[in-house]
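Technical annex B. To support the medicinal chemistry partners, we prepared a structural model of the target in complex with magnesium ion, based solely on the information shown next.
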Amino acid sequence: MSKVILKNIKKAYDNNKVVINNVNLEIKDKEFIVLVGASGCGKSTLLRMIAGLEDITSGEIYIGDKKVNNIPPKDRDIAFVFQSYALYPHMTVRENIAFGLKMRKVSKAEIERKVKEASEILNLTEYLDRKPKQLSGGQRQRVALGRAIVRNPKVFLMDEPLSNLDAKLRVQMRSEIKKLHEKLQTTFIYVTHDQTEALTMGDRIVVLNNGDIQQVDSPDEIYNNPKNTFVAGFIGSPQMNFIQGSDLGLDENILYGIRPEKMIKSDGDIKLTVNVDISEMLGSEKIAYFNIGDRRCSAVLSSEFNIGKTLDLSIKKSDLYEFDKNGIRI
Ligand SMILES: Nc1ncnc2c1ncn2[C@@H]1O[C@H](COP(=O)(O)OP(=O)(O)OP(=O)(O)O)[C@@H](O)[C@H]1O
Ligand SMILES: [Mg+2]
């Protein structure tokens, strides 16, 4: 069993600023969970506390059925993959992958078997005798994954492992990491600030803001049923439009949210003409930008759509999300 339980976890660094504020989370065995949030919200701090690389100010962490608060990182049965691959430059790929096992005095034959197995899974067999500087970014990150795999950890912890890669490679590595998860059948805890990575990779997503969990749900639920304006605005690109009720001829005390792709419906209940000030052609679609009241809004349109100076919106009431004055979904 490799579930991970966080109970009332708090963290304040030496300067006493609270960066993780009473986090409670139960990560299931074999789950791929993604922690997502803006820069500085506490994602790495949380992950490093699970790894034992950072002290917990208060609370309890369990890996499997074992409380690990006082267990050093090397005995927690975890493997950590960093954004900077942290490979040893003077060692070959083979030596890099084998390093941790060698330190643990694993037998030579066993090391050889494990390196072979990991390099086959990661398509690294032909690079085993190269040094890191002779590899591409994606290949280096695969070596870092290989080093984690050979340890047979109960839990994989990954902190923005793809953010040093170019856009195309990132998309490719995303599915490789998903495949790896399926093959290894272990618990993955994956940190990113990229909402697309979160939506495409996570079995469940944990949205963090300022050290607080905002919502924990499947990607579908997070996107279609955000619990508050933070989650609604953070997940989805372009971001959800927020419009004052009075600007739509609706309840004044309610803030309405609507996805940019839902702004023009042939059978909309609310008609509104707006002045477009910027438009962008993205290939498969176009985006028009405008104000509604004092709120900045956008509409996603098909690429054939001819965007003029004005745009006739047609909004279906059933596409609207309603939020109270505290930003909580009604
Ligand atoms: N060693 C430290 N001492 C003091 N404050 C720290 C320390 N490490 C991080 N912090 C602060 O804690 C907060 C959370 O940092 P953390 O690195 O966990 O954020 P993050 O969500 O991983 O951000 P990013 O997406 O930029 O990596 C930040 O305000 C940061 O300045
Ligand atoms: Mg971080």
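Notes passed to the chemistry partners:
The domain at 4-232 is CATH 3.40.50.300 (Rossmann fold).
The pocket of magnesium ion (ligand 2) is lined by residues 43-44, 159 (CB under 6 Å).
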